[in-house]
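REQUEST ID: PR-0412
SUBMITTED BY: lab tech R.K.
PRIORITY: routine
TASK: structure prediction, single protein chain
INPUT:
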Amino acid sequence: MTKVRLTHIGGPTLLLEFDGWRILTDPTFDDPGRTYRFGWGTSSRKTGTPAVAAPDIGPIDLVLLTHDHHDDNLDGAGRALLASADVVVTTVPGAARLGAGTRGLAAWDSTRVVAPDRPDIDVVATPCRHGPPLSRPIAGAVVGFALRWDGQEGGALWISGDTVLTRSVRSVAHRIDVGVAVLHLGGVTFPVTGRVRYTMNAREAVELTELVAPHTTIPVHYEGWSHFREGRDAIERAFADAAPRVRDSLTVLARGTPIDIAV
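STATUS: complete
OUTPUT:
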């Protein structure tokens, strides 16, 4: 099995390190205090400080960007970092906006990332819907990512991306053997759209974990911004009431503290 070192930088941002690879998800490195406008009357204020500053993150081989058009997944400092990464993979419209060789994937598309003296990584894009039905023209395209490489024994490492729980997201359980599930949570809502949610809540995370059956479930995207409605306490309560296999899979990362997980 491969030992993957994960470091939660904050929000949706993770640093993954294994076998010489250094992979960053959804780079967010701005300092707290600024309010960001997401469009259509929605906004959020950044409240958390990244555990590692962008200049200190070191070389990055691959950036997995679930979407480029919301600052809580790609802020100013994170956007500036993209140029230093060897490969950036994101949505098809995101790649068109970012240009410069960015690889764009639609749901169930795949790409292979290679480098000398390291295992090849197959990146499979998985479905997301960043809001209620018919919201894509407003909320924009989002994808998740499943990572596979030689040496995995416990299943793929899957990053859900910003999504609510839909039939297409549930289909991941039937199409991919998931060992580690990184779930974007927070139960995001905005005053202008009332109770309509744009990401999963803790209850849905439990349901998805039951379906996908990973050995490790890691929540991200639930702290550091004012539009997150459910934090760590809600997640831990929901998993504590779940079946033992689901309850025992939960691993909450302390920001800035690396943890090694077998994949």
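NOTES: The longest strand covers residues 3-10.
REVIEWED BY: pending
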